[in-house]
Amino acid sequence: MKGSSHGTTFPLLELRRRAVRMVAEVRGDYPNETAALQAVTEKLGIGSRETLRNWVKQHEPINHSGRLSSSPAPDARCRSREQR
After folding, report:
1. How far is CA 15 from the centre of its chain?
2. pLDDT at residue 60, as a whole number
3. Domain assignment present for 59
4. Contact of 67 with 75, CB cutoff 8 Å
5. Looking at the domain assignment, is residue 55 inside a domain?
6. Quick one: how far is CA 48 from the chain centroid?
7. DSSP code of residue 70
8. What is the three-class DSSP state of 76?
9. Phi, psi (rounded to 5 degrees) for 62
10. Rounded to whole angstroms, how far apart are CA atoms 67 and 74?
11. Which pLDDT score, from 0 to 100, does residue 43 have?
12. 53 located within any domain
């Protein structure tokens, strides 16, 4: 049997991919990321919101500097220091 121990018929990798896609699709429908994660967690029967949060972090694209593209603040601070 290819399902995970969470009672789903999806293989774990496919469940991860689907969950990450769903979070990206519904993120704007909720007031914050935590609410979106909770909704997807409940809909797919994932054991923990933090598990899903980790999956999303692992799948976020990396920008040219090697940092996660969702965290531009460090890059902005570096640029402002360079301009001084």
Report:
1. 13
2. 81
3. yes
4. yes
5. yes
6. 13
7. T
8. helix
9. -100, 135
10. 9
11. 96
12. yes
4 lies in some domain: no
Q: What is the pTM of this model?
A: 0.61
User: Could you tell me if 74 and 67 are in contact, meaning their C-beta atoms sit under 8 angstroms apart?
Assistant: yes
String of DSSP letters for 7-45: S-SS-HHHHHHHHHHHHHHHGGGSSSHHHHHHHHHHHHT
What CATH number is attached to the domain comprising 66?
A: 1.10.10.10
Separation of alpha carbons 71 and 36, rounded Å: 19
Residue type, 27: R
DSSP element (H, E) containing 56: helix 49-59
Structure tokens at 65: 């500097």
User: What is d(CA 10, CA 2) in angstroms, rounded to the nearest whole number?
Assistant: 7
Q: What is the mean pLDDT of each run of 10 residues along the chain (84 residues)?
A: 50 93 96 96 95 93 53 47 52
Structure token pair of residue 30: 């909720």
Give residue 48's domain range. Answer: 12-83
The domain total for the chain is: 1
